[in-house]
Amino acid sequence: MKKYHGIWMASFLLATIFSIGGQGIAYSLSEHFMPIIPVYYLTGVTILGYLLYLQTAFLLFRLLKNKNFTCKYLESIAVLLFIIALHASGWSFFVTAMWWG
Q1: 74, 64 Cβ separation under 8 angstroms
Q2: More confident residue, 77 or 85
Q3: Distance between the two ends of the chain, CA-based, in angstroms?
Q4: What pTM did the predictor assign?
Q5: Chain-wide mean pLDDT for the chain?
């Protein structure tokens, strides 16, 4: 169960970075990787952020479901992460929708 801690923390941090900094990532990928329209990169980064948030939720659900794991703050952490994920995903969706017009 200890391996899940690192995985859900890393996936949450990556999802937050992708959701909040998606515009910069899209421009960087367009300039340095393959020169296509950055809106396609932004859409991919946004979808990847959503998938990473779903993975984080799944792993936290597994930790909460495990009766052997005892952490008195895990429910509070899960609620806090849900609030952050909701706002970051909303921002990411708004930015992607504005780019698509």
Answers
A1: yes
A2: 85
A3: 44
A4: 0.87
A5: 89
